[in-house]
Specification:
Elements: E1 7-9, H1 11-22, H2 27-38, H3 44-61, H4 66-73, H5 76-81, E2 85-89, E3 97-102, H6 110-113, E4 114-120, H7 128-146, H8 163-187, H9 195-206, H10 214-222, H11 229-237, H12 275-284, H13 296-311
Parallel strand pairs: 1-2, 2-4
Antiparallel strand pairs: 3-4
Length: about 325
């Protein structure tokens, strides 16, 4: 750590973690005895400081800090790139993770504008081995965000298909980033090679378009050390552009490239939809290609649109009836 106060722990997190750690252990009586003596302090602020001191001493003596500090030491770009890191209590499991905050004021030194925050539940601190794996993954995200070559942008571009496709774009982007991080963790010996199959399965689910080429495209992210935000956005937004053709159709239960919903009924030959139907699709989805999987329902909708457009054309000579 670059400074003694670089890591700033939330007193509430420390207290709850220590309570859980000493529960049903011989040290519990000693800990609660030390806390009881703090209650004798009359001055409120001094008493509060006394509780913080007791909890902090026990937190470190119990080794509840080890995974946090080790994971941060493994990512020196964080300690050199942010002013400080807060470790605070997460309200629930879904809120756990690591975040980067940037002050937009241009008058502040870049390193002083950035702060990191790690959110954890008290019970997570009791399983240090599992916590270390989780923090390594989370802090890789922060390291990437700090890397100017990665080119991170906090907002994803809006998807052409509206809210349903915004959700699909976020899911694809997340899978790509997590795939790339998992590969780096495997090469460092932080994860078993067996996680490859798990990440390949997720990759296949969100990118059914690649068919037999799925493993080749997946390998480009899992087995490569260098990736950029733009790489993830480009593939997540237009996966059809990554391959010229596939030799097998989309997997049953994978998502339609238009509506974004899972389906078992795909249009079998989208290349035979006809120019008018394809034109209607590209009116709403300019980057859609016939190699992109679409469900029968969407195909039928755009067939109907093409018929309606054709029937609404003016009569020859602009005859008025």
């Amino acid at each position: 750590m670059k400074e003694a106060n670089f890591l700033r722990y939330d007193p509430r997190l420390l207290e709850e973690a220590v309570f859980l750690a000493v529960k049903d252990r011989p040290q519990a009586d000693i800990y609660h005895g030390e806390r009881s003596r703090v209650y004798d302090i009359q001055e409120p602020q001094e008493r509060e400081e006394g509780f913080r001191t007791v909890n902090q001493q026990w937190f470190f003596s119990l080794g509840l800090h080890v995974a946090i500090e080790r994971a941060l030491e493994e990512q020196p770009a964080i300690s050199s790139g942010v002013k400080f890191c807060v470790v605070a209590r997460a309200a629930g499991k879904n809120e756990e993770g690591a975040e980067l905050f940037v002050n937009s004021a241009k008058t502040i030194d870049p390193n002083d504008r950035r702060t990191a925050r790690i959110l954890l539940r008290p019970e997570s601190l009791l399983a240090q081995a599992e916590l270390l794996i989780f923090l390594r993954q989370e802090l890789f995200h922060v390291t990437d965000m700090l890397n100017p070559d990665f080119g991170y942008e906090p907002f994803l571009p809006p998807a052409e298909g509206g809210p349903a496709h915004d959700s699909l774009l976020r899911e694809r982007y997340k899978v790509l980033w997590e795939t790339a991080i998992a590969g780096r963790m495997v090469r460092r010996g932080w994860l078993s090679e067996s996680v490859r199959a798990e990440h390949l399965s997720r990759f296949r689910r969100v990118f059914p378009i690649f068919g037999q080429e799925t493993e080749t495209v997946f390998s480009g992210f899992f087995d490569s050390e260098t990736h950029t935000h733009a790489d993830f956005i480009n593939l997540a937004s237009a996966p059809g552009a990554a391959v010229e053709h596939t030799t097998e159709g989309p997997q049953p239960g994978s998502r339609c490239s238009l509506c974004g919903f899972p389906t078992h009924a795909f249009e079998t030959q989208p290349e035979n939809l006809g120019s008018s139907v394809i034109a209607e699709i590209r009116r709403d989805f300019p980057h859609w290609r016939t190699i992109d999987a679409l469900c029968i329902q969407c195909a039928d909708i755009y067939r109907a649109c093409a018929v309606a457009t054709s029937s609404s054309q003016p009569l020859p000579g602009n005859l008025l009836l």
